[in-house]
Amino acid sequence: MSAIRSVVRGVGSYLPARCLTNADLAQMVDTSDEWIVQRTGIRTRHIAAEGEVTSDLAIHAARAALADAGLTPDDIDLIVLATSTPDNTFPATAVSVQAGLGITHGAAFDLQAVCSGFVFALATADNFLKTGAYRRCLVIGAETFSRILDWSDRTTCVLFGDGAGALVLEAVRDEEEGRGVLTSHLRSDGRHKNKLYVDGGVSSTRSVGFLRMEGREVFRHAVGMITDVIVDAFEATGESADTIDWFVPHQANRRIIDASAVKLGIAPEKVVITVDQHGNTSAASIPLALAAAHADGRIKRGDLVLLEAMGGGFTWASALVRW
Ligand SMILES: CC(C)(COP(=O)(O)OP(=O)(O)OC[C@H]1O[C@@H](n2cnc3c(N)ncnc32)[C@H](O)[C@@H]1OP(=O)(O)O)[C@@H](O)C(=O)NCCC(=O)NCCS
Predict the structure, then answer these.
(1) pLDDT tens sequence across 260-288
(2) Which of 50, 77, 254, 307 gives 319 a disulfide partner, CB atoms 3.0 to 4.6 angstroms apart?
(3) Whole-angstrom Cα distance, residue 162 to residue 296?
């Protein structure tokens, strides 16, 4: 029986025009560039303009990914969009993206796994493509976390930013070069749900709420969860820290990324870092980093790329992709 692989055809991203630097934040709350850089590695982040919503960011990123793939919106029959900051409670932000791209066939839906959302979306799309149900999928991570930040809380408002990234995945039968999504591993454990959450919601408060986090607790669990699920990916494929070309982690915090890479024995030069420029853009952070490393020529066809994320829930996930 011939097998179907989900192969990356294109990648694209979008960042809102406005940058908010650590110096800007120091004017708003009791913080400093030195504290933020030392604890997180973040120097600046992008913030969506008034009226600019998550689907606007996603549409820009999707168009960039389609251009990179040499495809048109008509070629897409599935959109899986990961976000925790949808335009509205419903309909799904993905259908606004679908309409914005002028696509009237196929299906589009949102997926919510907070900062792990992009890897969850990639795995979901991969499984749909492998069944033969769909041919080409836009996998998007798009967020406007600036809208759920308490801008008076220095412990959280300095950490996050807005942005979007997208991949075009194509179902390819009998892929000869071994390209495509090789494996994905998704985990969650709801016992940790109160360590990183939003204190409002449709059914609980009929409001949106603000992001709340026990930063130290998240940090304490992060490295172990990340490394566990990466070991799962290595065991499933026979790959290792030595055979991967690029490590593209969720960009939450430089210290978490560095500690994970050290624990796994991944060489620092293989680690793609954008957290300094983007902050934590939740589900958008991995495709933003992929787009950056693809655009500057680091990630090339045939490279083995390791993705990893961890976030609210807790959720955590890994994927290995032969680019
Ligand atoms: C949030 C985080 C950077 C805080 O770093 P930390 O070293 O744990 O710092 P603590 O929370 O222990 O706080 C240390 C001190 O800095 C202060 N502080 C917190 N935020 C500050 C800020 N923006 N500027 C200056 N000081 C700050 C605290 O009030 C505390 O002061 P105190 O000792 O007088 O009480 C760190 O816990 C972290 O990165 N956690 C993971 C967060 C994450 O990645 N979440 C997303 C996962 S998807």
Answers:
(1) 999 999 999 999 999 999 999 999 999 99
(2) 307
(3) 21
* Residue 319, φ and ψ in degrees, nearest 5: -150, 150
Q: Is 113 in the pocket of ligand 1 (CB under 6 A)?
A: no
Name which residue sits closest to atom 36 of ligand 1, judged by CA: 215
Buried b (16+ CB within 10 A) or exposed e, 248-263: bbbbbbbbbbbbbbee
If phi over 0 gives left and psi between -120 and 50 gives alpha, with beta otherwise, what is residue 174?
left
Indicate which residue's Cα is closest to atom 47 of ligand 1. Answer: 311
Among 39, 120, 223, say which to mutate for ligand 1: greatest number of ligand atoms within 8 Å of CB: 39
pLDDT of residue 1: 55
Domains of the chain, earliest start first: 4-173 (3.40.47.10), 180-322 (3.40.47.10)
Is pTM beyond 0.90 here?
yes
Task: Answer whether 311 contacts ligand 1 (Cβ < 6 A).
Answer: yes
With the most atoms of ligand 1 within 8 angstroms of its CB, the residue from 154, 155, 217 to mutate is: 155
Ligand 1 neighbour 258 (Cβ under 6 A) = no
Q: Say yes or no: CB of residue 35 within 6 Å of ligand 1.
A: yes
Q: What are the respective helix, strand and coil percentages of the chain, to the nearest 5?
A: 40, 25, 35
| High-pLDDT (> 90) share of the chain, % | 98
Nearest residue to 16 via CA among 290, 284, 253: 284
Q: Which residues are catalytic?
A: 115, 250, 280
